Amino acid sequence: MNDERIELEDLSREELLEVFEGALFELVTEGKEYPEILEMTLALGLKHFVGAKLAGRTREELVELFLDSEAAVVALVDFAAEQGLLEEA
User: Where are the alpha helices (DSSP H) in the chain?
Assistant: First the structure.
């Protein structure tokens, strides 16, 4: 058994998921051989945001948000914070 496998097998399920997320982030953002994966990952995140935070809004609310790009960005940043993706200052 190699050292990396031993280290991974010592982690809890939650720790393993966190390490896996970090490794995927590194692969997608730093991997030069997979440029289309970065675009796909971005699209996946936006789709998740729209489904989780915007799908429940009324048609009128969606029109207003679409027309106010600053409010849309704020909603996206708020969602990122809810997901634990932002470091506290």
Answer: 3-9, 13-30, 35-49, 59-67, 69-82
CB 41 within 8 A of CB 30: no
**pTM to 2 decimals?**
0.75
For the chain, what is the radius of gyration of the CA atoms?
A: 18
CA distances for 70 relative to 20, 34, 66, 77, 85, angstroms? 33, 31, 9, 11, 20
Burial (Cβ within 10 Å: 0-12, 13-18, ≥19) of residue 28:
middle
- In percent, the amount of the chain with pLDDT more than 70 equals 97
